[in-house]
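Hi C.,

You asked whether I'd gotten around to modeling the 165-residue construct. I have! Everything is below, sequence then structure, no commentary in between.
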Amino acid sequence: MEDKSTLDAEQERAWLALLKGHPLLVNHLDAGLREHAGLSLIDYGMLATLWEAPERRLTMAALARSVVYSRSGLTRLVDGLESRGLVVRERLATDRRSWYVVLTDAGLKAFEDARPRYLADVRDHFVALITPAQLKAVAAAYGAVIADLAPDHEELRQYHPAAGD
């Protein structure tokens, strides 16, 4: 029987590398976006999610699921983006209790202005440092985590291991 209370040396090394490397990368990406575009990494992720959405709009619930954020936390983030004119909220015609978050033209411009720097940082500090096989392994590993922790999470289904089938 496997002892689930310990990790072997390789497992622990991999886990600790993730635990320490992830915030270093996230903090670097966040600092670059703040300096060059006035956006946080979370802001950028929300704008990117809306940019990909049909008609550049999602319901608050769908946006929260897409960016893996609590609904209350998302409300605060949307408030900040809305106050800067990057998004607007619109009521759903079919459900007066629900709202769409819509990417504005100013939000689209902010996203498009930030995107080249963001992609360059991702390439320079992540993609360029690992082999294609490692890149594929990272996608498969986190696809498996997503499938385990959020199997019915429609907005994340594209990252599941079976998505490439």
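If it helps when you're writing up: Helices lie at 9-37, 41-52, 60-66, 71-83, 105-125, 132-149.

Thanks,
B.
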